[in-house]
Amino acid sequence: MEFFYHLEAPLKRVLFLGYGNPDREDDGVAWHILCAIARRLRLDAPASYEEEFISSDSFDFVFQLQLTPEMAEDISAYDYVCFFDAHTGNIPEAVRLIEVESDFQRSPLTHHLTPQSLLSICKTLYGRTPDAALVSALGCHFRFSRDLSEETLALVPHAVDLVWEWLNAREAL
What we know:
Elements lengths: L11 E8 L9 H12 L18 E6 L7 H4 L2 E10 L7 E6 L14 H12 L4 E8 L11 H4 L2 H14 L4
Parallel strand pairs: 1-2, 1-3, 3-5
Antiparallel strand pairs: 4-5
C-alpha cells in the first residue's frame, strides 16, 4: 500500500504533509493541524490517526511518522507542499511558517530528514521542486498520550491561519 493518494492527473496542486509521533502527545500536532485544514476546506477529517484523509481534486493530505527519501517522487508532482511538525522551543515563535528551499542538510541522526533535504532530493532526482513551506508549532509535552496538551491545541487555529495566508499569497486557493 502506498502512502500517497494517486489521482488521475499527473500534477496535483497542494500537498499538506504532516509528520510526528501521534502517540507522544504534542509531537502529533501536525495531524491536528491537517484535520483543521481539511475542515476549513469543508472536507471530512479522519476521526483517528489510523484513518486516511480524503483528498480532493486540488488538495491531498498525508500524515507520517517521519520524512523519508522515498517521498521525493510524489512530492515532486505537486505545485505546493506545506510541511507540518512540532518544535520543542528551539525557535522563538510558538507557531512559525517559513519558506522551504532545496538545501541538502547533513544530520548526525540517521532517521532525521528535513523538508529542505527532501526538496533537494526532488530537485536532484526529478528536476523540480514544489513551492514549499514548513509550519512548526510548539509542543509543550511529549508524554505517552494521543491527546494534545491544552497549550499546543490552542496553537492549531493560528497554524491554520498562517497556511491560509501562505496559500492566498500564491493564489493557490
